[in-house]
Amino acid sequence: MNAVIYPSLLNKKAQGKKSFAVLIDPDKVNKQKLQELIALSLDAQVDYFLVGGSLVISNHLDECIQQLKQNSSIPVLLFPGSPSQVSKYADALLYLSLISGRNPELLIGQHVVSAPFVKQSGLEIIPTGYIVVDGGAPTTVSYISNAAPIPSDKDDIAMCTAMAGEMLGMKLIYMDAGSGAKTPITENMIQSVAANIDIPLIVGGGIVQPEKAYLNCKAGADVIVVGNAIEKDASLIKELSAAVHNVPISFK
Asked: What is the pLDDT of residue 141?
């Protein structure tokens, strides 16, 4: 499959443009709710849909993605919590390696198991260094991964982890405080990471206010991802998207 999504991310970064992504957990939406999210996202000019979750116990991942594709032109990126969360109907797959942890299964083990299926899927594969940061509350990803998150005040550890991920060949760095985080990732940590890598930086977890989304982008985030807050109040999509897209264009 020809790469489309990653070149678009690189192009936006080169132009200093910020992007907003809505994270959708297939377990938490029905067709009616999904249609509402699609309509709000189109109106707000959302850049990407991310689909996935730490568990995903339902069996309608394909249906969810197909509905998104049939009713909007917004690119759909898989954000998988396990090898089973792969769908040929998406546009791209964030091939996550949990570089902040020391669990070999999530560094490479599950990738070995999923590689043949992923290769055959025809998806655009984007190797992504996944960094979990302590958000002040236990998260599903930390429990499932059996890996401690990076402490929220250890900017240097986050920075060095991201640098290592880039030098190992990761094409994206995704920093996540986890779904429902009480404390989102600080601007200082985002700035430390962004200043020391050249690949796009995605930030998510605990972002519930447009001002925080704006400040994260000012600090160096290229893509802001929000899921949990939108699950509780879908109307936030418009405000959050506007905040991200109103960040003045800056060049690194």
From this structure: 75
DSSP 87-139: -TTSSEEEEEEETTS--HIIIIIHHHHHHHHHHHT-PEEEEEEEEEB--SS--
pTM equals 0.95
Chain centroid offset of residue 218 CA: 18
Q: Which CATH superfamily is domain 5-245 in?
A: FMN-linked oxidoreductases (3.20.20.390)
Distance CA 3, CA 218 (A): 28
Report whether pLDDT(58) > 70. Answer: no
Q: Which tokens sit at 91? A: 């546009």
Q: How far is CA 145 from the centre of its chain?
A: 17
226 in Cβ contact with 240 (< 8 Å):
yes
E strand or H helix at 174? strand 172-176
The rounded percent of the chain whose pLDDT value lies above 90 is 85
Say how far apart CA 14 and CA 18 lie, in whole Å: 10
